[in-house]
Amino acid sequence: RHVPQAHEAHYSHEEEDFAKGDSSELDVWVFRRLQMLLASANGDAKLHAELHGDRVVIFCHYLGIDSNGHAHRPNSNDYLNNIKLVDELVEKTYRLIEEFYDYDERTAYVFTADHGMSLKGAHGDGDPANTRTPLVAWGAGVQGPILPTKPGDPGFEIDLPTQSRAQVRAQLQAQEQQEHAALNEWGTLAGLVRKDVMQADVAPLISALLGLPYPRNSVGVLPFSYLAKGAYRANAVRSNAQQLYLHALRKEQEKRTRTLLHFAPYGPFHSDVPELTRQLDEAYDSSRQSDSLEDTQSFQQVEALSQELIEICLATLEYFQRYDWFFLLSIIVLGYVGWMLVVAVAYLHPRDFRVRWLLGVEGQQLDVKLVVILFAAFTYLALESSPLTYFLYVLFPLLFGNFAWNHKHLLQQAWLSASSKQPKSSGKRWLEAVLILVCLELVVLGYERREIFGVLFSLLALWPILGGSPKDSNEAEDRVQSGEVRGFPSPSRCWSMSCLLISVFPYLPSEYGEHTVLVHTGGLLTLLFAALVLRSTRPDRQRFGLTPAFGFEAVPLVLSLLTLYGTMQYLDGDRSKPPFVLTVANWLLAIVPVLLLLFRLQHGQIGVVSGLEIGSERRQETAEVTRYIARLVEMMLAFAPSFTLLSIAYEVLFYVALCGVLVSWLLLEAQRSSASMTSSTWREIQRAFVFLLLIKIAFFGTGNVASMSSFEISSTYRFVTVFAPFTMGALLVLKILIPFMLVACTFHLILLLPSAPLASTSGSEPRLPATRYFLLVVAMSDVLALHFLFLVKNEGSWKEIGNSISMFGIVNAQIVFIPLLFLLALAFVRDLAPSDSSSQSLKEKKRQ
Q1: Is 817 helix (H, G, I), strand (E, B) or coil?
Q2: Do 45 and 88 belong to one domain?
Q3: How far apart are CA 85 and CA 64, in angstroms?
Q4: Are 163 and 221 in contact (CB under 8 A)?
Q5: Which range of residues forms the domain containing residue 339?
Q6: Cα pseudo-dihedral 482, 487, 489, 490, rounded to 10
Q7: According to DSSP H, which parts of 646-768 are helical?
Q8: Are residues 369 and 501 in the same domain?
């Protein structure tokens, strides 16, 4: 539509169906359309003239391999057979075009791919399986195969003459395992020189083969060793150098005009480039004036000088890309530090804190000092024509820094209060702070090696033992063991067993095939776990049998297991699209249970809780814990159908293990709340840190950072089989959010546990615990974000670069995501919040 000189044909969106028996039909369709195009040219003079014009591009996109890889994975026969088919179609395409152009030897062919594919059928991350792609060129203007200089060398000889060599070598160093596998699989090609390039270099190669100008914003380097030696190749390399020179010159001019104060140019660009340009022009003129078209020495000199110029130009572009690096890094770090100080003031003095203080508004007065500083900073940035993001980068450090300066007395009070304590107590607090930082460092390591979270939860299993017990712990445990929750093991034992169980999952592979037997097993274990928990919460005389409400809430999960089996029979067994009725049933089973739960909560129908006897007033606190456990089971059963239908392997087993940890955490905190009538900052930090770890394990238990961008889309085939990126993406995000939601709901329930009124830091007035816990979690996330900021890489393998950026982005997203998660979770527990009268009654009883 936007390229009037182009002719295009494409299959419909509905034909990109992952449930089709054989997606290779898409590739056959492409070849047949090419046949029809060339055949119709014989009867269409205009089309015939266009196809025989100069610089014609024929682009064939064989998508079947990608579709079969997503649907059946690369190890399947469908994928391997599709590769064989594409090989045949490439040969047929070559012969078809050669026949059409009467073998005029003026056609160049480039065969490549935009990405690879991992064993789990995804390709969004920087794994070598996704970034190593083929590049084969032959035909007009292309140099033929070259024999290695060392024939006896068992490995590949790689020709890297261009200035992309540093990037290529960095990638190859991180791909030793893949290189060894390639030598075994492609050993017959070891007798030829390999010419590896970066993907950005493919565009200049195609431009050079067509005689077209290089793309305006391309920073790719022409892999000139692909071209036949001669004057054309030398001129193409020189043109590539000139294009990059103009690109670098433009970048410098833009930065120079926008810099008000001292401008620091890139030294070699001014000291070396003029002389290099002069030498290059002389060498090029000499090669043109040569009588011999095979003046190899002159051409080689042009190519060598061009590569030197390209190297300096690329370094210049990188220099100006990082020109403001120190400025940006400094203000970002100051922004994080300032935000931490704001959080500290809000945490230490929650009753005094006002959000409007951040804007410099206290009472009816506006902070003139802040206004003047902001005006000066924004004026300077505007005169430099800085991007809008720079204004935001500067705004937040100034707001936060001004706030911290205006309220430094509050921070000083907290510091003096901590310093005035006994040396023994002060030393303990410093030890606690060091322990928290060590644990946060382990979380940082866990982002790169998810097994670390297994270690952390193994250590958490010892928490009730190493953390000690309150002085009333025996009495508290007797209270938890009495009445409605007598069927549980001790909370400490439950916690230790569940933590050890969930610590196994980070050691399992994050790339897993489809094993629906594990999904069905996990679904049955979910039902069994829910039944056991509810049975344990019932009084002895009601212990045998469950309420009808449990059966009502368990039905959707049972039905989802049945529809899952039926859907997979069509997808894997018959290799056909599931019936519409079955797909609709999957959608209803995923959505309706959650909506029904919210509806019942809105209208006061408690579900499984209604079958529980609250007991006497003496056991009111224990009855509250029982209701909270029952509510957690209700949410677990409501979310289980959708999570089950979106799972393909051991994810549902992890779901059961996570629910076990959450129930144990609720029991353990109930015991601690009953045993200790006062709260300490250390206890708040413990709760916040456990919540943070549970949020991490909710994701890293079945995935890793790479899986955020390399999704297992086969889990969405139960709902949609036609390629629909937004729908599939939404379903995958839902699958990730479900464990997060359960963790957030459990944390809300813990904050509702009956306990004495929490004293403020000053000991004079109550505080809002939810706000304080939220601030602690945000502060810990800030520490992680600041750490990951310094771990961001722009050099090395694509996997290292991509993962470092993803880790920094994920941690920052949590700062915004956690409060939203809290708000969503509140909808499932709002009805359990005690009224003011009941809370006051409970306080009076505790005073007695």
Answers
A1: helix
A2: yes
A3: 10
A4: yes
A5: 325-380+393-411
A6: -20
A7: 651-675, 681-700, 725-751
A8: no
- Opening angle at CA 579, ends 574 and 584, nearest 5: 135
Residues 453, 407, single domain; the answer is no
Residue 314: helix, strand or coil by DSSP?
helix
Is 47 among the domain residues? yes
DSSP string, 442-507: HHHHHHH-THHHHHHHHHHTTHHHHT---TTHHHHHHHHHSGGGTTS--HHHHHHHHHHHHTTGGG
Q: What is the C-alpha separation between 326 and 683, in angstroms, rounded?
A: 39
Looking at the 3D structure of the chain, how many domains does it have? 3
- Is residue 168 within a helix (H) or strand (E), and if so which, with residue range? helix 165-173
Q: Which residue has the higher pLDDT, 814 or 291?
A: 814
Coil/strand/helix, residue 373: helix
In a domain, 482, yes or no: yes
In this structure, is residue 808 part of a structural domain?
yes
Instruction: Indicate whether 399 and 463 sit together in one domain.
Output: no
DSSP H helices in 752-797 = 769-789
Q: Are 702 and 510 spatial neighbours (Cβ–Cβ below 8 Å)?
A: yes
**Spatial distance between the Cα atoms of 786 and 784, rounded to a whole number of angstroms:** 5
What sign results for the dihedral spanned by CA atoms 785, 791, 793, 798? negative
Buried b (16+ CB within 10 A) or exposed e, 525-554: bbbebbeebbebbbeeeeeeebbebbeebb
Rounded distance, CA 204 to CA 306, Å? Answer: 15
Q: Which residue in 361, 242, 363, 359 sits closest to 309, CA to CA? A: 242
CA distance 687 to 104: 76
| Residue 573 DSSP one-character state | I
**259 neighbors 384 (Cβ within 8 angstroms):** yes
pLDDT at 264: 92
Kind and range of the H or E run holding 149: none
Q: What is the mean pLDDT of the chain?
A: 83
Residue 720's φ and ψ, nearest 5 degrees, are -150, 130
From the list 38, 12, 44, the residue with the least C-alpha distance to 25 is: 12
Supply the pTM of this predicted model: 0.83
For the record, the structure tokens of 482 come out as: 């009495």
Summarised one tens digit per residue, pLDDT across range 301-323 is 999 999 999 999 999 999 999 99
Q: Tokens in use for 432?
A: 């606690």
> What is the DSSP track for 245-313?
HHHHHHHHHHHHHH--S-----HHHHHTHHHHHHHHHHHHHHHHH-S-TT-HHHHHHHHHHHHHHHHHH
How far, in Å, CA of 169 to CA of 663, rounded? 51
Where residue 397 falls among pLDDT bands split at 50, 70, 90?
very high
Predicted pLDDT of residue 166: 82
Confidence of residue 291 (pLDDT cuts 50, 70, 90): low
Per-residue pLDDT for 202 more than 70? yes
The residue among 137, 163, 183 that closes a domain is: 137
Instruction: Inform me whether the pLDDT recorded for 603 exceeds 50.
Output: yes
pLDDT tens digits for 657-690?
Answer: 999 999 999 998 888 776 554 446 777 888 889 9
Beta-carbon contacts of residue 418 (< 8 Å; ≥ 6 apart): 426, 429
Closest to 47 (Cα-Cα) out of 96, 100, 93: 100
My answer on whether 624 and 552 are in the same domain is: yes
What are 156-178's pLDDT values in tens digits?
888 888 878 888 888 888 788 88
Range with lowest mean pLDDT among 88-97, 128-137, 703-712, 787-796: 703-712
Res 818: pLDDT: 84
> Residues of the chain with pLDDT > 70: what percent?
84
Question: Could you tell me which of 831, 789, 820, 794 has the C-alpha nearest to residue 328?
Answer: 789
Pair (368, 474) in one structural domain: no
Indicate whether 335 and 456 sit together in one domain.
no
CA 388 to chain CA mean position, Å: 26
Q: Per the domain annotation, does 112 fall within a domain?
A: yes
On whether both 406 and 450 belong to a single domain, the answer is no
Q: What is the reported pLDDT for 837?
A: 46
